[in-house]
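Field log, afternoon session.

UNIT: design team B
ACTIVITY: writing a sequence onto a fixed backbone
BACKBONE:
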């Protein structure tokens, strides 16, 4: 997991969201048990690239995979939605985080 996550993070930092997503898919295909850090790396990469829809899809995919998403996951999606001018969707994700029992913080509210 650590090696794949390192590559995913490197892609994210380089602004290559598509490559980050490809690496996560390769990890899944290889049977690697991905964790919240791996998914957060891709969610953040998509968010930074202005791909709010993809960021949301990856958060949902992480949840479907049984990964316990966290405040970082939700905040990245909230930020992506806000930057895309989708304030209603950002608010929906904030409410979903609260309903899921995730301890949102100041960053979540100001994303």
């Amino acid at each position: 997991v650590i090696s794949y996550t390192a590559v995913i993070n490197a892609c994210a930092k380089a602004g290559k969201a598509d490559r980050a997503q490809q690496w996560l898919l390769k990890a899944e295909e290889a049977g690697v048990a991905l964790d919240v850090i791996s998914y957060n790396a891709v969610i953040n990469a998509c968010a930074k690239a202005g791909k709010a829809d993809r960021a949301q899809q990856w958060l949902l995919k992480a949840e479907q995979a049984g990964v316990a998403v966290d405040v970082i996951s939700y905040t990245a999606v909230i930020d992506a939605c806000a930057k895309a001018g989708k304030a209603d969707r950002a608010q929906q994700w904030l409410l979903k985080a609260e309903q899921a029992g995730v301890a949102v913080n100041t960053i979540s509210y100001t994303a």
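LOG NOTE: The helical segments are 2-13, 17-29, 36-48, 52-64, 71-83, 87-99, 106-110.
NEXT ACTIVITY: expression trials, pending approval
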